[in-house]
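Re: Re: token formats

Sure, here are both.
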Amino acid sequence: MTDATDPAPNPHATAEQVQAAYADPKLANVLYHDWEAGTYDEKWSISYDERCISYATDVFRTVAGDADWPYPTAMELGSGTGFFLLNLMQGGVIKRGSVTDLSPGMVQAALRNAANLGLDVDGRVADAERIPYPDDSFDLVIGHAVLHHIPDVRAAFREVLRVLKPGGRFVFAGEPTRIGDFYARKLGQFTWWLTTNLTRLPALRSWRRPQEELDESSRAAALEAVVDLHTFDPSELERTALGAGAVDVEAVTEEFTAALLGWPIRTVEAAVPQEKLTLRWRLFAYRAWLRLSAVDRKLLARVLPRELFYNVMITGVKPPAPTEP
């Protein structure tokens, strides 16, 4: 269920709106994510089955543990299609959820996914710097790949702490580190150039997506560069959360070799026709990513600086209410 005052999605932005978005990051986020809402799960291989349930719960456990499961109420900030919240609900981490996003199209997609899964979820179109819920509303606030889209991250942390109940926890995952984002983008750009040029060859022509689709992907990528506002140093991100008033703050990083493989794979998948991506290919990509993630977690995380890894996750707690003297 959404609020009746929430704006409607706008998946077909005009050229004038797109041009204006280059100077307005929030408008860019709305247009880009409304545009992507209908195909976002397919683009990022998002599912609501055991594969992504295990991924979401493992990520949550890595940064925040499992001592307080299940949380009675939780809100996902910048929910997109609901990937993190809905899979955590299915994994027993959360009982009841709320989705919020700046994009009306994403909120509608998340609520459709929740309804299809039979989950108890409501939704609001929301600016992370002005969350439309009262003080002390939730036991948990979560987000996945959202902080790097928010202009004022410290203001968003303050709002998160406001809507958390005293002693409530936040968990944000899937944020790009400064170094990780640099090598991931370079790998993606090179793989896109290589794939789109190789598929011009007659022998590989059947692997080439129609030029119209490739052009649209390029336009989306150009706008994506506008909506991705930040990369993070883990220590600086911790200081930002502490400065907003959080306690028990900790940042954890993951994915090094997994990112070096994952970004080229994702780029190839975006550049070729979907029918070429057989089950065998998808299983190879997923299993290879799992194996390399295990290497990163069990071995490389012990010897490499955390700044080298691609993803940073952060958790913290709202201070408990002061006790009466």
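Second one below.
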Amino acid sequence: MTTKTRGSGIRKPGGERITHWLGLQKEYLHDTYKARGKPASPTVCPECGAIFRRGRWSWGVRPAGANEESCPACHRIRDRYPAGILHLSGPFFKAHKEEILNLVRHKEAEAKREHPLCRIMTVAEDEFGVIVTTTDTHLPRRIGEALWHAYHGELDLHYGQDPRLIRMNWKA
């Protein structure tokens, strides 16, 4: 009995191109902050103390003899390159600014407890309100939905051409 093999086992460059239905080639998306490979386990981030073990970043006690490497969140913070932007504005926001920013910080702490890479980078004021930048694409959405459930208002979600950046606007 003979078995058929699917190929030679050797990949040819460009042999697996995915094309759009119009015939246009799909571009390769390069994410500088996504690791090309897994760090050696255990690895500790020297800046925040997050530990990489068993395939994921988590919080815990620093293991003896652990390697040191910056986590993707600290890398983004150092480069000032956010993955999420949340803009808070409106007359209700201005009247209840401290209360709303406390909710924002609470949602960050809740997410950060389980996922060390979900962090707020900056909270900056502009002439319209406050801009919150994050190291993760899921955190702005989590915060925006919590604000909408608590205070209602208008919540707009924008995925731009770059899928690695999410923009949300909450106005109340």
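Residues 1-5, 14-20 have pLDDT under 50 and may be disordered. Helices lie at 72-79, 91-95, 97-114, 138-151.
- S.
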